[in-house]
Design a protein that fits this description.
Shape: elongated
Structural class: alpha+beta
Order of helices and strands: EEHHHHEE
Distance between the termini: 9 Å
Oligomer: single chain
Strand content: 15-25%
Helix content: 40-55%
Strand order of the largest sheet: 2-1-4-3
Number of strands: 4
């Protein structure tokens, strides 16, 4: 009977809101210690870290894009209210007998643009950065395939782990990846 022995190799820095760069855990699983040398292990870790660079670049770009977006939103809201109060004061000047709110409506155009941009900019940004994540994950798969070829008897595979979070009636999921090192006895 053949027995498969596995070792889990974590990829650190995953998760929503995690600002840490993605990198492989440098701790070699105990199940692999007698199968590969420390030098081979360190080279594998370096290759995986290099393969994860597109993801780290994407995280950095997402962070920058979100800061610019928040600044844009704040600017548009301040501009909207500033224009509203300026037009309101103009329409209610001492030369006019009545205050018209119609001229103030056009001042809310920046506010409307800010609100509508939420429905375009945020999804577009997430799609754009997901390309970096997909590229990085594909790079890690290639590194694992190459490491499997270089190390007969051991195979490396990228695996997904799904986490289910519940809070009251709210349910959310998160997916993380890890590498599985496997050999047969």
């Amino acid at each position: 009977m053949t027995t498969a022995i596995t070792g889990r190799i974590d990829i650190n820095g995953q998760g929503n809101g995690c600002r840490q760069e993605l990198c492989i855990s440098r701790t070699m699983p105990a199940t692999l210690k007698k199968r590969i040398s420390q030098t081979v292990w360190n080279n594998f870790c370096d290759e995986v870290d290099e393969a994860l660079e597109p993801v780290n670049e994407g995280k950095q770009r997402l962070s920058t894009a979100m800061m610019i977006y928040v600044a844009f939103e704040v600017f548009m809201i301040i501009l909207s209210f500033g224009l509203f109060f300026a037009s309101f004061n103009d329409s209610c000047s001492s030369h006019s007998h009545s205050c018209s709110s119609r001229s103030g409506f056009t001042s809310f155009i920046p506010f409307i643009v800010a609100v509508l941009s939420c429905f375009v900019i945020i999804p577009a940004t997430w799609c754009w950065t997901s390309n970096f994540a997909n590229e990085g994950l594909e790079n890690v798969r290639k590194v694992c395939e190459e490491a499997t070829v270089r190390n007969p008897g051991i195979s490396f595979h990228v695996r997904e782990e799904h986490h289910l979070h519940t809070q009251g009636d709210s349910v959310s999921t998160a997916t993380t990846n890890f590498i599985e090192g496997l050999y047969l006895l």
